């Protein structure tokens, strides 16, 4: 895996120049350092004024320190009068990486990774075909070869989670950096003329909070860069998204009961929660709280029926396991009786993240 990175997408023709500049600056100030742009949707003979606007934004983003990704096809190369074997003009424009939406022949892609301008070459992951292995056959310069998923504006058209894992793993197993898209609920602009939100790579994350979408992609340990596909994010989304640069473990948003004790709160906020390696199927067990805390957990907030995502702490009615934190994995669960205190529940939008947790994985909670 590569170091975690975050990115945005911009579509300058849909906004004033000032709005795009302000958005780039705001995101850069929050540690977001990748920007995705595309010329494909502009067609074979685009308005020269729009092209010049894009070129201005390429250079401005580069000046701010962005890694600038440009999505192109052969048609794009034709109207820019650039050959794939001479990418110096793209370097002059401020481009860091070319994403080949409709790739060339495998040998041409491999050869392009040796370009004198040192521009990275990115190809599509989502097709889940043997194109990448064919490129590898021609010995590309792998540090200049990247993979990136598509985004899918049409509801129910994005990849299934299973297909996403399979196709991404092809690239990761070859040591290639990977990227994928999440969607802002606030932003309504993409490459299309009409309004669109949730430009995502994976269908199951569509409609979830932006932070949760990104957490799910990063939790696969297969994606290194997460890009927001639509423009713009809200200020709150920028804040929530940028904080993921520093998140080192699974994070679950939780609605906490009002009347939990100080000891229960301390256990909930413990900084070394992890699921025991001998993981069961009924609940997640974080057991080191039994060792690190010297306190009594009096019975409190007893619930006869627990459901998936409920967070509990074993109380003094089961003295041996007292202080152990558990997360329920089944609905209508009644096996624990009066031995656990209900602390709160993981928010519904984060339950799919709970499905990805495995033994030895570290996790934390974030009160909402």
Walk me through this protein's architecture.
InterPro entries: Aldolase_TIM, Cyclophilin-like_dom_sf, GH, MupG, MupG_C, MupG_N. Residues 6-242 form the 6-phospho-N-acetylmuramidase N-terminal domain. This is Outer surface protein. This protein has 368 residues and is of the alpha/beta class. The protein folds into 2 domains: 5-247, TIM Barrel; 252-367, Cyclophilin. It has helices at 17-29, 48-63, 74-80, 88-93, 106-112, 131-137, 161-172, 210-219, 235-242, 262-268, 289-292, 351-354, and strands at 5-9, 34-38, 67-72, 97-100, 120-124, 145-148, 177-182, 225-228, 250-256, 283-286, 310-314, 325-328, 340-346, 363-367. The strands form 2 sheets. It has an 8-stranded parallel beta barrel with strand order 1-2-3-4-5-6-7-8, surrounded by 5 helices. It has a 6-stranded mixed beta sheet with strand order 10-12-11-13-9-14. Strand 2 (34-38), helix 2 and strand 3 form a beta-alpha-beta unit. The radius of gyration is 24 Å and the shape is elongated. The mean pLDDT is 96.
Mean pLDDT: 96
Proportion of helical residues? 25-40%
Structural class: alpha/beta
> What is the count of helical runs?
12
Q: How many E strands?
A: 14
Task: Output the radius of gyration.
Answer: 24 Å
Give helix and strand order, one letter per element, not per position.
EHEHEHHEHEHEHEHEHEHEHEEEHE
Termini distance?
31 Å
Measured by DSSP, the beta-strand proportion falls in 15-25%
Largest sheet: 8 strands, parallel, barrel
Q: How is the CATH topology of the largest domain named? A: TIM Barrel
CATH architecture of the largest domain: Alpha-Beta Barrel
Strand order of the largest sheet: 1-2-3-4-5-6-7-8
CATH class of the largest domain: Alpha Beta
Number of domains: 2
Superfamily (CATH H level) name of the largest domain:
Aldolase class I
Overall outline: elongated
| Unreliable stretches covering 5 or more consecutive residues | none
Protein name: Outer surface protein
InterPro entries: Aldolase_TIM, Cyclophilin-like_dom_sf, GH, MupG, MupG_C, MupG_N
Organism: Spiroplasma culicicola AES-1
Domain 6-phospho-N-acetylmuramidase C-terminal: 251-366
């Amino acid at each position: 895996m590569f170091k975690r990175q975050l990115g945005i997408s911009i579509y300058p023709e849909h906004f004033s120049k000032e709005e795009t500049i302000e958005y780039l600056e705001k995101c850069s100030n929050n540690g977001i350092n990748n920007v995705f742009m595309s010329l494909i949707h502009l067609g074979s003979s685009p308005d020269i004024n729009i092209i010049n606007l894009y070129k201005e934004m390429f250079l401005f983003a580069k000046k701010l320190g962005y890694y600038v990704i440009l999505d192109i096809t052969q048609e794009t190369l034709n109207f820019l009068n650039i050959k794939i074997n001479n990418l110096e003009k793209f370097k002059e424009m401020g481009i860091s990486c070319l994403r080949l939406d409709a790739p060339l022949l495998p040998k041409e892609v491999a050869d392009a990774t040796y370009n004198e301008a040192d521009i990275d070459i990115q190809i599509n992951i989502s097709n889940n075909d043997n194109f990448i292995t064919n490129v590898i056959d021609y010995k590309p310069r792998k540090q200049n070869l990247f993979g990136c998923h598509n985004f899918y504006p049409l509801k129910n058209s994005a990849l299934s989670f299973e297909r996403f894992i399979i196709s991404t793993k092809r690239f990761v197993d070859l040591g290639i950096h990977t990227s994928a898209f999440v969607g802002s609920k606030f932003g309504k602009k993409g490459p299309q003329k009409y309004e669109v939100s949730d430009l995502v790579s994976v269908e199951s994350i569509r409609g979830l909070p932006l932070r949760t979408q990104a957490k799910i992609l990063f939790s696969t340990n297969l994606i290194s860069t997460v890009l927001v596909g639509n423009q713009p994010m809200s200020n709150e989304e920028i804040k929530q998204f940028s904080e993921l640069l520093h998140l080192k473990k699974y994070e679950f948003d939780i609605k906490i009961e009002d009347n939990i004790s100080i000891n229960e709160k301390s256990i909930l906020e413990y900084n070394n929660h992890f699921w025991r390696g001998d993981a069961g199927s009924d609940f997640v067990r974080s057991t080191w709280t039994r060792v690190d805390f010297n306190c009594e957990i009096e019975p409190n907030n007893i619930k006869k029926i627990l459901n998936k995502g409920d967070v509990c702490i074993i109380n003094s009615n089961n003295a041996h396991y007292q202080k152990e934190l558990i997360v329920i994995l089944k609905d209508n669960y009644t096996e624990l009786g009066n031995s656990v205190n209900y602390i709160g529940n993981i928010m519904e939008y984060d339950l799919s993240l709970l499905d990805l947790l495995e033994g030895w994985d570290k996790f934390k909670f974030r009160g909402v």
